[in-house]
Amino acid sequence: MPHKTVIIGGGAAGLGAAGGVKAARPDAEVVVYTEFEDVAYSPCGIPYVHGQEIPDFERLFLATKEQYVSVGIDVHYETSVTGIDTAARTVQVTGEGTVGYDTLIVATGFEYADPGVPGGDLEGLYYVKNIRAAMEWDKVLDSVKRAVVVHATPLGVEMTTSLAHRGIETHLIDPNPWPLADMADADIMAPVEESWRELGVVAHFNTTLKGFVGQGHVSAVATSDGELPCDLVVVATHKTPNARLAAAAGLKIGSTGGIIVDERMATSVPGVFAAGDAVEVPHGLTRVPLQGLTGSHAYAQGKTAGTNAGGGSRAYRAVYVPWGTPAGKWVIGGASFGETTATALGIPYVLGQAQGISRARYYPGVKPVKVKLLAEPGSLRLIGAQMVGQEGIKERADFLAMAVRHGFTFHDLSTMENVYSPAIGALNEPIVVAATNGLEELRTAGKL
């Protein structure tokens, strides 16, 4: 009998895991169970179809169902796994009964945190996740005049911009004083808020959700500042790990609610691996457990889990979290953490900042780029960065995450080489300028 791996979940982690198993052991039997109608699509693209930057949902599909069959991956669609028996190495599957495995990968993804307010059962509450549901909601958006987005999470930020682009009067409510307050600094988000105002978005910060109001269908959102009439609500609360099956099976769960895994993505139970939004992984500097990262993290974790489940060898390192997203007319991003998080964790830092440009100042289309760098006092080792601009943010975030990982200092960054070509890069790279400014401030203060 061939080695059999069962994978619960058909998202980025689950499909990455399936590919990892087949790469490590081509003759393995790989079975994937998903509750949804599809796999192999990008849910991260859904807000951009709603905003009409992407013309149709079909472009979000990355592979056909036939392609998975052709490489020997058996996907069971619209099928639920209801239990795991790790001692017997079996799972309970609706409509199939007891199914055995040699290795198991749990990639059950995330759920949106329950808002915990009255009216949660009303129609018109949209949780952005499944592409088939999104297709139906997109038709609804054609008749929506006014929408409310609940919470300025990464998805909430994207959907706020997308709904405004769609021409819908959009209100955003969040209990924090600025958007993405758990991860981004106020000065980084300030240009985003200004651009939202230009788009007609009304943001309600320091505002608490009290309930959803309506008779059958939502007609308003009740907040600490009063009611906001609406035709639709996008509920973009924080992602929480869907680890119920894992917990019931006796897998160890961490402080975030995610499944605890080691660098092989192995759980506390032999033969069981886990990956994606259902797990927690450590931050490379602080060792604080993190959960609910990006699709690229989920896919890489899945590859690692699958490779090891298939008998290969692969390690997943602690994360330094390069991130970025469009917001209003800007792109925001960073690596590791910014001032807000450092302050909350009691991590001392020194700062280097620069207001730079993305191309030569005389080249058409030149855009502003603001860079903030955080370094450890004394060693001046980079520990975090945040940026706002209109191009080049993703590439800088990727580089700066590696710079944090490998211990680059302000001295290293101040003297680094950079591409200068008028159409694609300025003479003075903003990262270099930020590091140089940080050093100069320390010299001026007599601390260097």
Mean of all residue-level pLDDT scores: 97
Strand content: 25-35%
How many DSSP helices? 12
Largest sheet: spatial strand order: 3-2-1-7-19
The parts where pLDDT drops under 50 for at least 5 residues are: none
**Structural classification:** alpha/beta
- For the secondary structure, the number of strands is 26
Rg measurement, Å: 23 Å
Silhouette: globular
Biggest beta sheet attributes: 5 strands, parallel
Please give the alpha-carbon distance between the first and last residues.
Answer: 67 Å
- What percentage of residues falls in helices of 4 or more residues? 25-40%
Short note summarizing the structure:
With 448 residues, this protein is an alpha/beta fold. It has helices at 12-24, 46-50, 65-70, 131-141, 154-165, 186-199, 244-248, 295-309, 339-345, 393-405, 410-414, 430-444, and strands at 4-8, 29-33, 73-76, 81-85, 90-93, 97-100, 103-106, 110-112, 125-126, 146-150, 169-173, 202-204, 209-215, 217-223, 226-229, 232-235, 239-241, 259-260, 272-274, 279-282, 289-290, 323-327, 330-335, 350-357, 368-375, 382-389.
